[in-house]
């Protein structure tokens, strides 16, 4: 599960603010809000040979997150698309690419938490890397439940796709130390919320279930997976789910831009047989693969 460096990314160009910079020169100020307090929003995009997958879904969420955080200014969607296109073109990228799209509140006139100190406008970062799906979607991943709870809306609402990821990072650290691939995070009531970096689904008695999006990110791939279930005629429900229901599931899988649909084969030392659930999972994954060409934005349409 430890990602490896791809030598093709050594000389990439990265968009910061208003233009492209070589990798070793792509930087933000120490006064930038992302450095001062993690005050930024982000999206993960994937580029297939057909184009950028569900691009406008991601840009809409980026804009909504920035609005929820009361950004004084948000770049136009056309500007963001132009920056993405120029970044990909400069790097000769056409497929097997992951883009980390970040929008910070921008540079401050002096250090401090007050957003009124941000007087230079927001800073857009387009970091595109050669990177196929990062998980083992054939052999699956092993996960462990962690003591780190997922934020509730009373604390830091997960519906804002913000850059303050310490909550998730602490869960990932616990998983690393225990020798697992990812940390399974619970909500404040003790129900499963999500993995430290992806949403989760279980398969039981021919049906599919996923936790309510109260404490987890209502992920875009999560939503598309639910639509894939509908297309395949598989009942799919949002529901509070306990760890026991995960231990005894007929199949578990994770969903996200970084890894698409990934089988989970072990939770807290309990093996997930995935025998009865395998056919259902395969049907869902087949539907997801059919969605990709349907929902990609060709690169030449960005300019």
Overview of this protein structure:
There is one protein chain. This protein has 303 residues and is α+β, with helices and mostly antiparallel strands. It has 2 domains: 9-130, 2-Layer Sandwich (D-amino Acid Aminotransferase, Chain A, domain 1); 141-293, D-amino Acid Aminotransferase, subunit A, domain 2 (D-amino Acid Aminotransferase, Chain A, domain 2). The chain contains 7 helices and 16 strands. The protein has helices spanning 33-37, 55-68, 77-91, 166-178, 220-232, 243-247, 278-294; strands at residues 13-16, 19-22, 40-48, 51-53, 97-104, 123-130, 141-145, 182-186, 192-195, 199-204, 207-210, 236-238, 251-256, 260-267, 270-271, 296-297. Strands 7, 8, 9, 10, 11, 12, 13, 14 and 15 form a 9-stranded mixed beta sheet that branches. It has a 7-stranded antiparallel beta sheet with strand order 2-1-6-5-3-4-16. α5 packs across α7 (278-294). The two termini are 36 Å apart.
Regions with little confidence, pLDDT below 50 for 5+ residues: none
Q: How many DSSP-defined strands? A: 16
The total of helices stands at 7
CATH class wording of the largest domain: Alpha Beta
Summarize the model shown.
The protein is an alpha+beta fold and 303 residues long. The protein is built from seven helices and 16 strands.
List keywords for this structure.
single chain, alpha+beta, D-amino Acid Aminotransferase, Chain A, domain 2, 2 domains
